[in-house]
From TrEMBL:
Residue ranges of every copy of the Core domain listed in the record: 7-106
UniProt cross-references to PANTHER family, sorted A to Z: IRON-SULFUR CLUSTER ASSEMBLY 1 HOMOLOG, MITOCHONDRIAL, IRON-SULFUR CLUSTER ASSEMBLY PROTEIN
InterPro entries assigned: ATAP, ATAP_core_dom, Fe-S_cluster_asmbl/transfer, HesB-like_dom_sf
Record-stated family: Belongs to the HesB/IscA family.
Name this protein carries in UniProt: Fe-S cluster assembly scaffold SufA
Source taxonomy: Bacteria, Pseudomonadati, Pseudomonadota, Alphaproteobacteria, Hyphomicrobiales
SUPFAM superfamilies hit by this protein: HesB-like domain
A Pfam family it matches: Fe-S_biosyn
């Protein structure tokens, strides 16, 4: 049995990541990190870059998501998806570790996940 991925990447998010990486150098991925921000505590930040030591890398056909090593315990069990409206398309995170969010939607409050609560996958 192997350990589950830190995050799940929905098919829509995987397609969007593939599009972002289409003209990138090999080894580059979409890095997801957390940054102190807003009134609730932290905000998700993303950048195209190569993994750093200790990061978790989620590779899939034609794409790569990199989870910052300092964010892993806050993102365990999260699903990365894409929300599309008439005027915009953006990544969204369904995070079971989120305890609150600010009213403006700029930041969220997260608690550390309990790694033992995730069941291993076959």
């Amino acid at each position: 049995m192997s350990a589950p991925s830190v995050m799940n990447v929905s098919p829509a998010a995987a397609e969007r990541v593939r599009g972002l990486l289409a003209k990138s150098e090999p080894g580059v991925g979409l890095r997801v990190s957390l940054e102190k921000s807003g009134c609730a505590g932290v905000a998700y930040r993303m950048a195209l870059t190569e993994p750093e030591p200790g990061d978790e890398v989620i590779d899939f056909d034609g794409g790569r998501v990199i989870v910052d090593s300092k964010a892993v315990l806050y993102l365990l069990g999260t699903t990365m998806d894409v929300k599309t409206t008439q005027f915009e398309s953006s990544f969204v995170f369904e995070n079971p570790n989120q305890t609150s969010a600010c009213g403006c939607g700029e930041s969220v409050e997260l608690k550390e996940a309990d790694p033992s609560s995730l069941a291993p996958t076959a």
